[in-house]
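Good morning,

Attaching, inline, the backbone tokens for the sequence recovery test we're adding to the shared suite. The designed sequence is right after.
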């Protein structure tokens, strides 16, 4: 196309359009006169040849361009915006000014005619400093390929530099979207503790004096192994009461049998039989109470029966381990006077330990019971112990903003000790293919995360991305990119500022630019 020399009134209108575009922060110039449709007032007098009412036709009524101002959404005069006012499309088509591939007037299509980005020489200065980059309209795409965020117009724009040299001078750097096998893991500080389900503190069941120590620290014990003997008067009394109750039962059983025989011979009366039955029942209750008292003191049913059969009333109270393990604590000494509140021994099964993890609040949503955990103690570099997450706390520490997570880890070699510190790695996602972009390539533009895809040496396309987790300076991209694209890293913030210029006022940003 070639420019025509226009009358002074048309040149004034063109200059006004250029000034409006520059004031809006865009370098795009609408070359409205290239098809000859800014023909002045003479056309108004002859009627509208464009199929519109003369008063509503921006070609015939040039004053509409100034009156309606700029279209903030598309960066062209409102009167000439076919996307906001499709009714004027036939007018452009009538004059032959229509770009069918991109569904915009050819005089506005900067994709087919990059030269439109250069302002016409009106003889008046438009800017003291030339723009280094400008926004251009993105080609229309089929509806099924458009962004689902209908209120966001970020993806309707592209950033185009005036030349490759300017893009290089801007210091842009690039990285190719990487596809590789990755696993999602979370690393947390952790401390080893005894398995709370296999750890017990043992105290004397009754007040007394420690008379004998049979096991020491570090010794392995089996279930039922006696660790110490306590001489307890309480035990002696309980055994004596048990024997008395057993004897009373035996006596009243014989007495009851005798009364029944006498009643059959009409020698005794029924009242005597009932009295014998009542005393027998009371004696049996006393036996049950005595047996329960001995159980509370730690004696097994077999020991209680043996005591009753042999008539044992000794006050030697054994302190026994309830399960197999290792003696990990001992405070008892011979001759020590003890009560029921003072722990004397602690036994733990050290084949399995607990790793208590401090997981950051932001990582908590990814953690689930059953996930695999690997623990490495600071004092045992290279020695790793595997386990599983078994519990997640419901309380976040107010000071550290971390949450406790418990993992059960194996300790078959006994190297893990309670109180050890180290690092635990939780496996959130098993290794699988994923797309990765550098963190510096991702910018938050007010309503979504975007990266800038390099389309050419001068053209860059903002792409909204859905991010997964972060690892080693990169993000996993769940949606928005393919594996064969190149994105801007250094300089992506510069391109974001250009996007914000075009989106402010268009209903996209929810915060101030740059935040």
């Amino acid at each position: 196309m070639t420019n025509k020399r226009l009358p002074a009134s048309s040149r004034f209108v063109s200059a006004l359009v250029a000034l409006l575009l520059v004031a809006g922060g865009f370098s795009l110039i609408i070359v409205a006169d290239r098809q000859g449709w800014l023909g002045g007032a003479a056309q108004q007098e002859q009627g509208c040849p464009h199929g519109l009412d003369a008063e509503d036709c921006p070609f015939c009524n040039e004053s509409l361009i100034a009156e309606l101002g700029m279209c903030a959404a598309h960066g062209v005069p409102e009167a000439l915006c076919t996307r906001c006012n499709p009714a004027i499309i036939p007018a452009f088509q009538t004059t032959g000014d229509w770009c069918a591939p991109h569904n915009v007037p050819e005089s506005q299509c900067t994709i087919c005619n990059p030269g439109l980005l250069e302002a016409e020489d009106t003889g008046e200065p438009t800017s003291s400093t030339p723009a280094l980059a400008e926004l251009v309209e993105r080609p229309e795409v089929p509806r099924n390929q458009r962004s689902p965020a209908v209120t966001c117009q970020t993806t309707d724009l592209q950033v185009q530099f005036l030349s490759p040299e300017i893009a290089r001078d801007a210091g842009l750097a690039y990285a190719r979207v990487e596809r590789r096998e990755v696993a999602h893991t979370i690393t947390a500080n952790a401390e080893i503790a005894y398995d709370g389900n296999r750890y017990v503190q043992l105290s004397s069941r009754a007040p007394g004096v420690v008379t004998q120590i049979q096991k020491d620290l570090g010794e392995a014990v089996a279930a039922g192994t006696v660790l110490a003997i306590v001489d307890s008067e309480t035990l002696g009394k309980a055994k004596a009461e048990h024997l008395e109750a057993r004897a009373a039962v035996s006596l009243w059983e014989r007495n009851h049998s005798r009364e029944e025989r006498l009643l059959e011979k009409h020698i005794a009366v029924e009242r005597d039989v009932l009295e014998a039955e009542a005393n027998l029942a009371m004696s049996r209750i006393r036996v049950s109470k005595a047996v329960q008292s001995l159980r509370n003191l730690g004696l097994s049913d077999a020991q209680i029966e043996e005591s009753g059969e042999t008539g044992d009333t000794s006050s030697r109270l054994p302190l026994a381990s309830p399960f197999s393990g290792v003696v990990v604590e001992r405070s008892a000494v011979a001759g020590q006077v003890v009560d029921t509140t003072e722990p004397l021994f602690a036994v733990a099964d050290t084949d399995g330990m607990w790793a208590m993890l401090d997981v950051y609040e932001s990582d908590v949503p990814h953690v689930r019971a059953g996930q695999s955990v690997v623990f490495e103690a600071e004092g045992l570099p290279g020695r790793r112990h595997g386990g599983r997450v078994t519990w997640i706390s419901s309380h976040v520490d107010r000071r550290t903003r971390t949450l406790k997570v418990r993992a059960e880890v194996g300790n078959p070699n006994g190297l893990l000790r309670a109180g050890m510190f180290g690092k635990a790695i939780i496996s959130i996602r098993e290794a699988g293919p994923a797309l990765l972009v550098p963190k510096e390539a991702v910018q938050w533009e007010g309503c979504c995360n975007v990266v800038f895809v390099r389309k050419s040496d001068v053209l860059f396309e903002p792409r909204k991305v859905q991010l997964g987790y972060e690892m080693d300076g990169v993000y996993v991209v769940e949606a928005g990119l393919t594996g064969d694209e190149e994105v801007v890293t250094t300089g992506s913030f510069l391109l974001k500022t250009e996007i914000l210029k075009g989106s402010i006022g268009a209903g996209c940003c929810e915060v101030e630019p740059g935040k």
